[in-house]
Amino acid sequence: MIGRFRAGDEVFYGEIDDNRVYPKGSSGIYELSELRILPPACPSKIICVGLNYRDHAEELSMEVPEAPILFLKPPSAVVGHEDKILYPACSSRVDYEAELAVVIGKRFKNIKADRAEDVIAGYTCFNDVTARDLQQKDGQWTRAKSFDTFAAFGPFIACSDELDVSDLKISCRVNGETRQESSTSNLIFDIPYLIEFISEIMTLEVGDVIATGTPPGVGEMQRGDCVEVEIQGIGTLRNEVI
Predict the structure, then answer these.
(1) Which of 10, 102, 147, 233 is deepest in the core (most CB within 10 A)?
(2) 0.70 exceeded by the pTM?
(3) Among candidates 129, 132, 210, 223, which has minimal Cα distance to 172?
(4) Class of residue 98 by CB neighbours under 10 A (exposed 0-12, middle 13-18, buried 19+)
């Protein structure tokens, strides 16, 4: 596992092992409890995939899309583990969406699916926070998906060789109650396919994030709620809504 941390005025990446953090390029060792956990990447853009779980499509009685449905979130929406999600005053319905996210490790364009592993830094948990009422009102997704704090991800990056992302349990809990529960085996478009498809459109930079879609059970968050996204082999992303 790799994380991004703050100790005083210093920001650094480090490897996590048994609640100890070993900063890259340094001989020092920290206890995890001594550090502030930061978002594990600094994306130039966040590419999100809509309707990418078969069981979610079934839940909504919608046809499986023929190609990935893409939208973007701005870097200004990023927050990390234990940061607050701000409920916009102009919305009356804000939803959670638990997702597996891919963190890009190399700059590239037009890469084939069979080479996708070469450009992946690793995987993390993502909450695609959405002002659902504004999404329905606008008829498109930019405003509803782009508020500050609406791209929560972390806490750490699990490296590609640490897990098999083709079949990972993914869940979301609100105040300890499970609201979403599925597996990445239900993805309609797998990660190599998504990377090939997206890289035909745009250059991907180091630190960019691809959020791969959400399983069934999407629902509403209220101010004061604690929302947790947990993915097998990666960990738990926790945020409070205020």
Answers:
(1) 102
(2) yes
(3) 129
(4) buried
Phi-psi region of 217 (alpha: psi -120 to 50; beta: other; left: phi over 0): left
Q: Is 175 left (phi over 0), alpha (psi -120 to 50) or beta?
A: left
At 132, give phi and psi (nearest 5°): -65, -40
Q: Between the CA of residue 43 and those of 40, 76, 101, 132, 211, what are the distances in Å?
A: 10, 10, 12, 24, 12
Beta bridge partners of 226: 240
- Residue 180 and residue 108: Cα distance in Å, rounded? 33
pLDDT 10s digits, 62-84:
788 899 999 999 999 999 999 99
Scored b (16 or more CB within 10 A) or e, 56-83 reads bbeeeeeeeeeebeebebbeebbbbbeb
Handedness of CA 125, 209, 206, 164 (dihedral sign): positive
CB-based contact 67:197 (threshold 8 Å)? yes
- 164-214: per-residue pLDDT in tens? 999 999 999 999 999 999 999 999 999 999 999 999 999 999 999 999 999
